[in-house]
Design goal:
By secondary structure, this protein is of the alpha+beta class. It contains 14 helices and 37 strands.
């Protein structure tokens, strides 16, 4: 009896250790460490092979999402990727958080996850590597912690995290640009087209791998990869160029991506040190990808509640009228336009300092305030990193100059700044972004970044960040016909990729023709983008004259759109083909919109009753793709047939 009882006790102890219920029990390579989501559907397994190389794998229920994938860091002083020992795995702890956002897809965010830290010992006398996992019902996050108190600068030369995808996986992937290429050497600025249904393991056409966010369909399930909670001691990263067998690694910023020729590009900092989160949004449908807030859930909260924040809608002359119309008279006209539409902002773009001047801009700001409109003004971010000539330039990189400029703008009555043409993802640029946000907040200014990196949860940490571009936006449609031809497919990809990880300043909605180009989308498709796309401040491309030519009910729809959203639901869609989303106004009513990117008609069936909509006004395509039609729809199931490259909206009644 004693022997049998001892065997039973030993087996029970091993089970508790595997489940994380015995915090101090040492884990062995033969006993993988496990942690699951609160609902048990997502499971992560952490293991160590005979050569001391750590790995992790991810399953959704019984479906393999990631095969065993590598973990580890290479420091200048130590290789923490092999010859490691699994010291212990902490007890699984429950993480809960709730917070409010003004400028993202959901206003009231709630996060629940199971957390487990796995401790690895490196070479004798060297640093210890801890890997922290947080598993929620919508995904997996992992980050590295290098413990210690050394005042010496630690240099991270490589990160060996990989994502090993099952055979047959397909991806929707954004080619990462080579630094210093493109117009005026402004790349990388995340402004390429997503490649559609790429076989896992395919090399990028630009030779620099693939950008985050990266979307994959693996074993009938969906996986979105990105990163979050970017601090000041890491660089931005992306998926490496070589991915043999569908195993994607991490690539750091390229050598030119520093704010000065000698500024830090690769990660460096003092101990204790934490990496950003590697984020894997996981689901058996696309809904978690579109609806997840993991990027902000995992990011640091704001340090003070006093930071300025405001969402809204804006008029904007530049995209259809160009540089020459950044003049006093035209901008006054666009202030009137915003006031007529009930929009909160008007953006005055590049060259305002020379074509209008500071004194006249102060006059415009005062005029706008009288109309209940606030002004945003454009700046060039430039230091040495590219050759973009637009002004104001060389005002913001130097800290003293930046703070004086921001103070001057506040005194002029300016509400915020749009800052353009950044130079990459190096660690020094991660600091420059955050310096800009910090100093703008002190001056009471909102910030929108263009020619920029992707959102990494900064709009939670810095609530004055209202939007980021990091997308091949509407302006490209004005450059050449090839871009115009790509618009439908591109727009139907973005809700599942770029816009899924944070506010996106695509600057949508144009009913007017583009000079010298043939627009491929219908006017109803363009109208739908006002709901399908989310940005903290939504800058509309259409001009005052073009808006005046539209039916009164279309104008009324754009007047009544909420300045911010409370929630989002994906109702239907497939990347690159079509997308149907519902967004909830702060008062509880749901707006619905959809686009068809294909060359064939598509029938959409909506159950409006599930959204609590008893009645609504449907606006869709008319007899031509430049006209509209409208009719009332009741709650319950509604069928809508969209023409090729058409769209629709439902306005709640």
């Amino acid at each position: 009896m004693t022997v049998c009882f001892s065997k039973y006790l030993m087996r029970y102890s091993l089970l508790l250790t595997a489940l994380g219920l015995l915090a101090t029990a040492p884990a062995r390579a033969a006993e993988p460490v496990r942690v699951a989501s609160p609902n048990g559907m997502i499971q992560v397994t952490v293991d160590l092979d005979s050569q001391g190389r750590p790995s992790y794998a991810v399953r959704y229920d019984r479906t393999e999402i990631l095969r065993p994938s590598r973990l580890g860091l290479v420091l200048a002083s130590a290789d923490l990727t092999q010859k490691l020992k699994l010291v212990r795995a902490d007890k699984v702890t429950a993480i809960t958080d709730s917070y409010q956002l003004v400028t993202d897809k959901r206003s009231a965010c709630a996060y629940k996850a199971n957390c487990r830290v796995v401790h690895f010992a490196g070479p004798a006398g060297g640093p210890q590597l801890d890997v922290e996992f947080q598993v929620s019902n919508d995904g997996v996050a992992l980050r590295y912690v290098v413990a210690g108190t050394s005042q010496d600068i630690q240099h991270i030369t490589a990160e060996k995290t990989t994502f090993s995808l099952p055979a047959g996986t397909k991806g929707w992937l954004h080619p990462h640009a080579k630094a210093g290429t493109g117009w005026a050497k402004t790349q990388p600025s995340y402004e390429e087209y997503y490649q559609q249904e790429v076989a896992a393991g395919t090399v990028s056409p630009l030779g620099e791998g693939w950008s985050f966010p990266a979307l994959f369909q693996a074993n009938g399930h969906w996986l979105l990869l990105t990163e979050a909670n970017m601090g000041r001691d890491y660089c931005g990263s992306h998926l490496a160029h070589q991915s043999p067998g569908g195993e994607y690694g991490i690539a750091f910023a390229q050598a030119p991506e520093g704010t000065t020729p000698t500024a830090s590009v690769l990660p460096e900092g003092r101990l204790p040190w934490r990496s950003p989160w590697r984020v894997l949004v996981v689901g058996n449908t696309l809904a978690p990808v579109v609806e997840s807030t993991l990027t902000t859930d995992l990011s640091a909260p704001a340090t003070t509640a006093a930071l300025p924040t405001a969402a809204g809608r804006a008029s904007w002359s530049w995209v259809l009228l160009g540089d020459k119309n950044t003049t006093y008279d035209v901008q006054r006209r666009f202030i009137d336009y915003a006031a007529t539409m009930g929009w909160e902002y008007c953006l005055v773009d590049a060259l305002w300092d020379t074509q209008i001047g500071y004194d006249k801009m102060a006059e415009l700001a005062a005029y706008a305030r009288g109309k209940n409109v606030r002004l945003l003004v454009w700046y060039n971010s430039n230091g040495h990193w590219n050759e973009a000539p637009q002004t104001p330039i060389n005002k913001l990189f130097d800290a003293a100059s930046r703070r004086a400029e921001f103070t001057r703008l506040r005194q002029m009555g300016i509400a915020g700044v749009k800052i353009d043409f950044f130079g990459g993802d190096g660690q020094s640029f991660m600091n420059y972004y955050q310096d800009l946000l910090t100093d703008a907040a002190t001056a009471g200014l909102l910030v929108s970044f263009h020619g920029t990196t992707i959102p990494r949860g900064w709009n939670r940490t810095y609530p004055n960040l209202v939007s980021m571009e990091a997308v091949r936006g509407f302006e490209f449609l004005t450059f050449d016909q090839a871009n115009t031809d790509q618009e439908p497919t591109h727009c139907a990809t973005l809700p599942f990729t770029r816009n899924a990880v944070g506010p996106m300043d695509f600057t949508p909605v144009a009913f007017s023709e583009i000079n010298g180009k043939q627009r491929r989308t219908s006017n109803a498709f363009e109208l739908a983008l006002s709901v399908v796309f989310q940005s903290g401040i939504q800058h509309y491309a259409e001009t005052d004259e073009g808006m005046a030519r539209q039916p009164a009910y279309v104008q009324d729809f754009l007047k009544k759109l909420p300045p911010r959203w409370a929630d989002v639901r994906l109702l239907d869609g497939f990347p690159g083909q079509y997308a149907v989303l519902a967004r909830q106004a702060p008062g509880g009513a749901w707006y619905v919109a959809g686009i068809n990117a294909t060359d064939q008609p598509k029938t959409i069936r909506l159950d409006l009753g599930k959204l609590g909509l008893k009645a609504g006004a449907l606006i869709t395509d008319g007899d031509t793709n430049r006209s509209f039609s409208t009719r009332e729809v009741a709650g319950g199931t509604t069928s809508i047939t969209l023409p090729a490259r058409g769209g629709f909206v439902v306005q709640p009644q």
